[in-house]
Amino acid sequence: MRRGLVHRLGMATLPVWILVLFGGVWGLIAQFYPPDQFPGPAAMARALIEVAMDGRLWTNTWISLVRFAGGYLLAVAVAVPLGLLLGRFGVLGRLFDPLIQVMRPISPIAWFPLAVLWFGIGNAPAIYIIYLAAFFPVLLTTIGAVRGIPEVYLKVAANFGADPRMTFLRVIVPAAFPGIMVGLHIAVGTAWIHLVAGEMLGAQSGLGYMIVDARNFLRTDLIMAGMLVIGLLGLAIYRGMRVLERAVGRYWGLGQ
């Protein structure tokens, strides 16, 4: 029992040691470059403390999170119901599939000039880019999840006298939930990446803008600090989604 506890503690601390090793290698490599070209962990930490103390970090982080939440949640609110509809009714799916397949390969960044033309400068273009980045991953995985539901589930529901509404809410949605969550996870990554890209292209605030502003002043330490914050926030969002996924899975008895 004691050996098992030691093993679990070792496995729990292993990611920390990997991060420590990464930081050590980073610091070692930084010794061979000028600080303004490749700053080490200590320089990046000082830059992070600087922007935290003067408030820029918190302001830009909050703005980025609000933009991300607006675009991502809007995409989910549209793509999930639409995906359930197109996946459930094959005729509609075949009707709209050519349009979807033409639109989905277009990079959200390619839409940025039009987004600025339509919405002007500010939050709206960035939210629109995030929406596009999240929409198609969620839509396509939802359609695939519904189409992948075993037919026997629907037959059993019909044999027990379930009406279409109950079948949809009690059978189709729970059965498709794991597949939908795959799309939500993918969309988080793509939307977060394009949020930063959108802010770097035209916004006047946010973490992406903070990185561009640091580049203009040749502050590579601030660039790396912004990159670290972006990565940590992405990890926190992913972990939060995993907690939500397990909670919903337990509610539907999916063994999450």
Which descriptor suits the 3D outline?
elongated
Gyration radius (Cα, Å) is 23 Å
And the CATH topology of the largest domain?
A: MetI-like fold
The CATH homologous superfamily of the largest domain is called MetI-like
Structural class: mainly alpha
Tally of alpha and pi helices: 10
Number of strands: 0
CATH architecture annotation of the largest domain: Orthogonal Bundle
- How many separate domains? 2
- Tell me the fraction of residues in β-strands, as a range: under 5%
What string, H for helix and E for strand, traces the elements in order?
A: HHHHHHHHHH
What is the straight-line distance between the termini?
26 Å
- Could you tell me the mean pLDDT? 83
CATH C-level name of the largest domain: Mainly Alpha
Helical percent range?
A: over 70%
User: Main beta sheet, described?
Assistant: none
Low-confidence stretches: none
